[in-house]
Amino acid sequence: MAADEPKDRAYPLKRDILASTRLNFNHFWMKNLAGYLLHPRIPVDKDRFRLADLRAGAGHVLVQYTQSHVYHTADNGSLWASEVATALPKAIVDAVDISSDQFPPDAFRPSNSNFWAHDCFEPFPTEYLSQFDAVNLRFLLCVVDDDVADKLIDNVLTLLSYIQWFEPQPRTARVRGRTQGVPTPACDKSIEIWKKPATHSSQDWVHALPELFENHQLDVIAVDRHQNPDCYMPIARQAAVLGQSEYFGQDPEFEAHSKQLAEEYAAGSMVDVTWICVLGRKAI
C-alpha cells in the first residue's frame, strides 16, 4: 500500500508493471467501446481549457470482500489524462489519484499535464476550487456505495463546470454466447457478484446517475449507453483473466472458479455488462 493511500480505501490489486499493462489494455478497450475519451459535447475551444481526471484509487474492481473472490476490469487514469493532454495541446490536464505509484515518469508526461495525489473523498486544496472546465470520473463502483455517492459528487462539484462519469451497470450483467441450454454455473456466480459484490454493498446510485446529477443541480446533457460487440468479448475475457491472475496462489476456491469460467468461455459463454456515460453541466 502506498504511503499516501488511506487504509480504508487501500487498492486491492498490484501496482507493478504487469498490473499497469492490464490497466492500459483496459484503457484502449474502453476508448474503442465508447468512441471517445472526452465526450464530444464538452466544449474544449476556450482559451486555457482545464480538465481534471479524478481517480478514487481503485480503478473499477468488483470485490466480494468476505470470501476474497474478485472479478474485475480496471482503468488507468494516467494514460487517459496523457492521451487527452496530447490531443488538446492548448488545454491543461490534471491527473489526480489517491496514489502516485502508477504515474508515468516526468520525462514521459505531456508538458501541459499535472499529476498529483489526493483522496477525492476529501476536500480539495483551495487553489483548485472552481478552476476546472470539466472533470472526468470513471469506474468508482467498487469504492462508492450509496451512503457516500452524494459526498463524492458534492466534493467534485467544487472544481468544475462539466462532469463526465463513466461506469458499468451491474444489474445488466448477463451471459452472452451460444450456450444452447447448457448450464453455466460459473457465469451465473459471476453475475451474482456483479450485482452484490459484498454483503455491505449498496450501489443503487450507479443505476441512477442521471437522477444523481439532477439532484445536485446539474443539467444532464447526454446519457450514452455502450454495449460490447461480439468481437470485443475475447477482450473482456482477457481483461478478466489478467486481473484474476493477480490473486492466483492465494485462494484455491477462487482459482477453481476462474478455471470453470475459462471452460465455459471456451464452450461459448461469457458474462457481459452495459456501460453508461453521463455528461452533466452546472446549471446556469
Describe this structure in words.
Helices cover 30% and strands 24% of the residues. With 284 residues, it is α/β, with parallel strands linked by helices. The strands form two sheets. The chain has a seven-stranded mixed sheet with strand order 5-4-1-6-7-9-8. It has a two-stranded antiparallel ribbon with strand order 2-3. β6 (134-138), α3 and β7 (162-177) form a beta-alpha-beta unit. The model is unreliable at 1-13 and 56-76 (pLDDT under 50).
User: Percent of residues in beta strands?
Assistant: 15-25%
Biggest β-sheet: strands ordered side by side in the sheet: 5-4-1-6-7-9-8
Q: Report the strand count.
A: 9
Query: Which blocks of ≥5 consecutive residues have pLDDT under 50?
Result: 1-13, 56-76
Given the C-alpha coordinates, what overall shape results?
Answer: globular
H-E string: HEEEHEEEHEHHEHHE
How confident is the prediction overall: mean pLDDT? 84
Give me the oligomer status. Answer: single chain
Largest sheet data: 7 strands, mixed
Q: How would you classify the helix and strand content by structural class? A: alpha/beta
DSSP helical segment count: 7
Question: In which range does the helix fraction lie?
Answer: 25-40%
Radius of gyration: 19 Å
- Between the first and last Cα atoms, what is the distance in angstroms? 42 Å
